[in-house]
Amino acid sequence: MHAPSTTKPVILTGDRTTGPLHLGHYVGSLKNRVTMQDTHRQFLLLADNQALADNAHDPEKVRRNVIEVALDYLAVGIDPEKTSICVQSGLPALCELTMLYMNFVSVARLERNPTIKDEIRARGFGRDIPAGFLCYPVAQAADITGFKASVVPVGEDQAPLIEQTNEIARRINNQIGRAVLIEAEAVIPKVGRLPGIDGKAKMSKSQGNALPLSAAPDEIKRAVHQMYTDPNHVRVSDPGSVEGNVVFTYLDAFDPDEDGVADLKARYRRGGLGDMAVKARLEVLLQDLLAPIRQRRAALARDPDFVFDVLRDGTRTARAITQATLEEVREGLGLFELGF
Amino acid sequence: MHAPSTTKPVILTGDRTTGPLHLGHYVGSLKNRVTMQDTHRQFLLLADNQALADNAHDPEKVRRNVIEVALDYLAVGIDPEKTSICVQSGLPALCELTMLYMNFVSVARLERNPTIKDEIRARGFGRDIPAGFLCYPVAQAADITGFKASVVPVGEDQAPLIEQTNEIARRINNQIGRAVLIEAEAVIPKVGRLPGIDGKAKMSKSQGNALPLSAAPDEIKRAVHQMYTDPNHVRVSDPGSVEGNVVFTYLDAFDPDEDGVADLKARYRRGGLGDMAVKARLEVLLQDLLAPIRQRRAALARDPDFVFDVLRDGTRTARAITQATLEEVREGLGLFELGF
User: Fold this and answer.
1) Is B177 an 8 Å CB contact of chain A?
2) Which reaction does it catalyse (chains A, B) (predicted)?
């Protein structure tokens, strides 16, 4: 489809295929990816294998959402001519690399990983952590190094995963005696994290406080109507608080007219500006943002052959790259080759 | 090479490729495998991936011994027309199955495995167990189920590994809703464990008490000469002890003339039979046993193309089988398929 550029830095990012993406993803990563695809050689990984680590008992959900997330990518403007969208389970070299790397990482080191600790707590695994979950930083190291990515956009809480990746890369390089694998830079994108419509810190489908990218006009309307504002701002004339007020946080994220937003905030703080008026302004913005995304998504959903072709092309490209890395690592380590 | 029989039970066994095989292997497994290849559809796995779990820092050793162990197999009479000899790292489907299964086994369950506990202790890993080592029972479950083996010969101490395998098979089958995977039977072969020539319970290259299958006549002579007998049997006329006397243990294992051995034992116990006489008898037996093995091995070593062809054929056959199992499991779980 496109000649891989050798000059652009390689960026790897993606999503676990556990559900369609929402407005929080748009602000937190998708918008950034649409920009990055012009300046970087970008790979988006539909991480269906990794999704199984805590969804082993609902593989059907994981399968279904491969297409849902791919639709979200394409709908927001990810261009398959610029970005390779690939399916993780279509890349067996990543499993082979993971198994190799697992010999170079101790269990104690994995257990110390702060991200893993937090996630084990959040998921309530207790002592019943699946082995696949404990080892997912190793699988992620295989993803990143397999693509020879030099840039990996991560949330602040995920920086330890990149440290783990680079530690593995150094160990493998050290064992081989030269730098076959590339160390990656964790880039924490300068994007806001969008709170849920209920005011909770994180927008999440499972918390029921998310606005999906495919939301219908009514759903957008309802979500804005339900949005958490200032519970003490009872009458229009009351002074209101802007801090922690989701509607204003969203205006900061989506309203290009910064002066207009500043003016609204001042009026809201003084009193005399009702929630309804602010919400009306936000609703127009969200309807305008989401309408073309929803329409492109619906059109793409009617053309599954096209979407499959995009995934097949992207995965084929990714297969060649990850297979080449695997072969380099195996050859570097001096492993046995049958030569077929 | 041969049409896979659908009626013969499938047997999977093999060796980690960490060193050439020795007389202990011959008695403990190889002899049995030569017999089994007539009654079973037998696969011998050269487990180079698994060997890396505790040899990550010496991959060259693991590579080199793929050929060494293959030579041992062929030299003792494993017939590639009857047995598929295959290289584990040439079977990526096993890595993919391992990664899938890892989501169905908890870390706590792996830590409870008595075999793993013992081996962690024996290898002195302490808290620095490589993740690959902790998870190797999962990889072994992938091997066994990947081949749909119904029979797995194991040492007594390895029975927990088959329990773990069958537990995983049941979980996967349960998730799928039908028996895609086969539960395997652990068969503890009725073979003696040959002690080391120094009288230690286990013959092991690392302990320096092993007699390799490729041993030259001088090496055999020296080994028999050094063999541990009865330290209290100083003069020929002294009564001697047969129990724990390695020479007699070996005669039990290798001398077809049971009555003759019984007679020797009686004379030794009474006094009047010297170690040299008993050792002379054993040496003849061992020279006769090992000479044709050594000669076949040397001839095969001069024909690396033939050995590579055997491994390629066997691995190709194994690839088709393990890939088919992977596809069945993926399809059964309902995972995403790109269809290429």
Assistant:
1) no
2) tRNA(Trp) + L-tryptophan + ATP = L-tryptophyl-tRNA(Trp) + AMP + diphosphate + H(+)
